[in-house]
Amino acid sequence: MTITHWKIAHAQTAGRSHIKNNTPCQDFTLTMQQDGTTILLLADGAGFSPTSHIGAEAVVRKTASLLHETFDFYYLNLDETEVKKQLIETLWKEFETLEGYDGDVKQYASTLLFAAIKGDQFLAGHLGDGVIGIEAEGELKVLSFPENGQFANTTYFVTTEESWEHLRLYKGTTENITGFVLMSDGSAESLFNKREKRLAPAIKKMLEWLREHPNQKIQDVLSANLDSVIKEQTHDDCSLSIASLVKKEPEEFVTAAGDYLNDFKGIRSDLPVKSHEEEVISEDPIEAIETVSHDI
Amino acid sequence: MAFSQEEFMLSKIELEENPSPRVPICLVLDTSYSMYGEPIKELNNGVKLFMDSIRRDDIASASAEISMVTFGGTVKQVFDFGSIHRQTIPHLGVEGVTPMGEAVNLALDLLERRKMMYSQSGVDYYQPWIVIMTDGAPTDDIARAASRTSDLVNKKKLTIFPIGIGPSADMNTLKQFSPKRQPLRLKGLKFVEFFEWLSKSISMVSKSTPGEEVKLDVASIPDWGSL
To answer: Can you tell me the mean pLDDT for B36-40?
Structure first.
């Protein structure tokens, strides 16, 4: 039995201009797997608001919870306008609950990018700049392009009036798709060719790293690359959320390390999670793998 | 978690290198005979300071693209938009009458051509700027040029700074180019102070990120100009 499983990692880092001005990173990312749903999110807080990082986090966390709880509603609903309006309205209501809310949602302005996978279905959404990419049949493709205003320092935010009109939704099956990547505009400076409208080869490499190594390790690797390589080509914050599909035969796990195997403990697994230090395969490799594969 | 730097670091060749977003600025400068003497000398000093100042700023110099059109006797394109590092600081002389309308039209044509080039080559750009400086009144018809700039300003596609030099500058004419911002009169011959302010403003724009509202340093305008 072939084991198939989505592995996930995310990272963000403050841009050079924010470090210089002693302002926080305004990008916020999250990846999660729960109850059979894999979710990637990213929001880039607007430069004009000193509290946009709070908005970015709130947007990410609320959208994560909505996707987790109501993936089917979003996926199956044929009234796309209703879906968009409902999502934005929920996010605006969320802002009102935040400590420090001053009556103007613009203080929490941010973009929004997400991708959610359940079974063989995916749903992605994009409002503003940044890029959503996929790896399909071994090739990188842009799923959603940045939507800027007419000038370099303009885009659309969740808090823009009638922002639902700028929310682009994508849904389909994951057949042939083996990777998702969300990036903020800062990361896109290095990972997206604006002229040729294509993604950088580096993305394939990151997806491959994630396929072969523990999630936490690749999360650290992404952080290090954002900090020392990607950030060099922009003054803006940089962030990434990625997911890689792993397809392996059970025997391929025999020599895998414990922390790698732990990433495969299915979200519906009843297995107690073993500590990262413990080599699962040292006890009874085949039994461990069979149990894991059954749960995925 | 420790990991091998070499094994897990991306190399430049795996990344894309996108061009910096550009800030196109066109200086439309009066070099008619009335600018003879101290005014043209101070204008030359100001232009030199402006270009030197942008060149010293890493981010602004990668973003700012300056073109220069003069109107003195005839309209001359001193240089088209391009990298400031490849442009020679000009020495402007004075000559003849004041064909301001034709000069502004040429500036707008250069700007349209540049914007098309940006779009075709996937280069992002900020809102373009036009600075018009004159010490007198136009000797040609400015109606079409004023209508074009006003249309662009009203559509938020252009920032325009009309600047009058000395007591004979026709501020009512300058106002026709700028439906929103009042033209300013340079205090004395404070070209250097104006161009210093302009280079700082361009620097701020070149560092702005999406959603960031660039607030011009209005407080320091009285150092060089007045309504």
So the answer is: 93
